[in-house]
Amino acid sequence: MSTENAIQAAALDPAATADSQETINAEITDLHAAYRQTVLDGAAVETQPRINFAPYRSSLLRHPTKDLHHTDPETIELYAPAFGERDVHALESDLTIQHNGEPIGERIVVAGRVLDGDGRPVAGQLIEVWQANAAGRYIHKRDQHPAPIDPNFTGVGRAITGPNGEYKFTTIKPAPYPWKNHHNAWRPAHIHFSLFGTDFTQRMITQMYFPGDPLFSLDPIYQAITDADARDRLVATYDHSITSHEWATGYNWDIVLTGSNQTWMEDEEGEN
Ligand SMILES: [Fe+2]
Q1: C-alpha 48: how far from its chain's center?
Q2: CA of 227 to the centre of ligand 1 (A)
Q3: Domains, the chain
């Protein structure tokens, strides 16, 4: 089977080829080395994940291969959501109080600010988060790996940024979980973040990671961002000023949008 066919087969049925972690690591190393050479040769630094990153097998069949078509923003805005402060209750940012009992795990607070590329706060921004529980399990029928569901933890929350772009979530530290990209593949612990912008065309989705995770170098999703500095920006910082006495440890993670509100549009036009 050719390499290309093997990759496509793996994307359709990861168990069919079950590449080893060593194979994935070697591919990541080669792609990163090639990227660093392009930067040395004068190419621009890449700050976004590659959409066709071969070690992340399913990305190959799933990524767009044609230029995106622009929708008419005036039309789409007729249907787009507009969130105000009264649409999201303050308690929705606490993922530990959604059920009758306390969820199991390490209680944490994740706080930070949403800033534009010029360092100005982005106020009134809808942030949604979703994550696995303290055992690395999602409440999702496709997640069937043998780790317990926590009846007191759903793993979703949302908040609106304050006047200084600030946000804060109280939650449980998620655990790593296995996935079927290759044999013995495990994702570093992470929290998914969505920032809605002012309409559907601006939605941005990313992941926040925890400092010092030993799985970083093995994870083809994290490593799909070929630039080391850009990868580092997805990792929160432990912040003892956010930690509260006998209650929760604290992490800081500022979300800096790469430019003003037009940045997402520039990405869609393939300008960077
Ligand atoms: Fe996840």
Answers
A1: 12
A2: 21
A3: 3-62 (no CATH), 75-268 (2.60.130.10)
